[in-house]
Amino acid sequence: MTKTSSMASDVPNQDPEINPKSPTTTKPLWRRLLPLVVLVLGLVIAWASGVLDLLSFDTLRENRDVLQSYVAENPAISVLVFSAIYMFSVALSLPIGAILTISGGFMFGAWFGTAYVVIAATFGAVIIYLAARYAFYDLMHAKAGNAIRKMEEGFAENAFSYLMVLRLIPIFPFWLVNLVPALLGVKLRSFIFGTMFGIIPGTFVFASIGDGLGALFDQGKTPDLGIIFEPRILTPIIGLAVLALLPVAYKKLRKAKNGGSFDE
After folding, report:
1. What does pTM read for this prediction?
2. Which helix (H) or strand (E) holds 184?
3. What are the tens digits of pLDDT across the range 178-224?
4. How far is CA 139 from CA 27, 125, 130, 162, 191, in A?
5. Going by C-beta distance under 8 Å and a sequence separation of 6 or more, which residues neighbour residue 106?
6. CB of 135 within 8 A of CB of 32?
7. Buried b vs exposed e over 17-29: b needs ≥16 C-beta within 10 Å?
8. What's the confidence (pLDDT) of residue 145?
9. Under a CB-based contact definition with an 8 Å cutoff, are residues 95 and 139 in contact?
């Protein structure tokens, strides 16, 4: 082996979307699994306590005046409490995102409700991302080797675009889209911005429903959560997903035009 090739082999991976290997392989397994164990324990406690049953449209209807009065009198505390509840519900992967988002619109209005939900949901997603990466990234790469490396490179090449599409159109559960990028080495920056921008349209739809929830209650009705699948709502969201994939299509066309390699 020549000196040049030896030096090249020592150069760390500089792919802008893939993190270099972290030193977690030197840590005991129990320490790497501890963050995930805490999250799973929190999930079990939430289910066992029955707290999830308390969050419903009936609860919002019955406590409508109390909630609105409290928000009016304690705006800052209300935002902090709501954001903390939303963040931890995402971190624990509780299946209450839709009704919590509607509650945000109900208490704070469509625009502010959207803003608070997007920020809290992004922080909650980051908690899962970091816990999964810390626990499993090095272990999985050590076991899978080149196979996972190829998957990693394929996803990470256009990580932001792929994340935008997965967030815009919920083909897969929200919690799963939090885990996979962590295991495929997507950089935290791309994960944060892909999540933040990708969930804005859907969040605004549900927050807008919440903003009009009082009028529905006055009519004795409850909102239809399937509204997001109506063509008038889903079509523009799909359009945004297509726009998010344009950079991917451009790269592939450019690569084909250049005979399988990019011009630097």
Report:
1. 0.77
2. none
3. 988 888 888 899 999 999 999 999 999 999 999 988 888 888 777 77
4. 11, 21, 15, 24, 21
5. 60, 67, 113, 210, 211, 213, 214
6. yes
7. bbbeeeeeeeeee
8. 58
9. no
For 3, 20, 82, 225, 249, the CA distances from 7, given in Å and listed in that order, are 6, 18, 53, 58, 35
Phi, psi at 63, each rounded to 5° = -110, 20
Alpha carbon distances (Å) from 166 to 171, 175, 179, 180: 7, 11, 12, 11
Bridge partners of 18, per DSSP, are 186
Other beta carbons within 10 Å of 56: 13
* 149 confidence band (pLDDT: 50, 70, 90): low
Distances (CA, A) of 37 to 129, 197, 201: 14, 29, 32
What confidence tier does 176 reach under pLDDT thresholds 50, 70, 90? confident
CA dihedral sign, ordered 228, 234, 236, 239: positive
Q: Both tokens of residue 258?
A: 């250049």
Structure tokens at 164: 């935008």
Closest by CA to 19, choosing from 224, 217, 191, 146, is 191
Secondary structure of residue 120 in the 3-state scheme: helix
Could you tell me which of 168, 157, 138 has the C-alpha nearest to residue 17?
157
Q: What is the CA radius of gyration of the chain?
A: 22
Give the integer Cα–Cα distance in Å for 97 and 102.
Answer: 9
3-class secondary structure, 249: helix
d(CA 116, CA 120): 6
- Mean pLDDT for 100-127 is 95
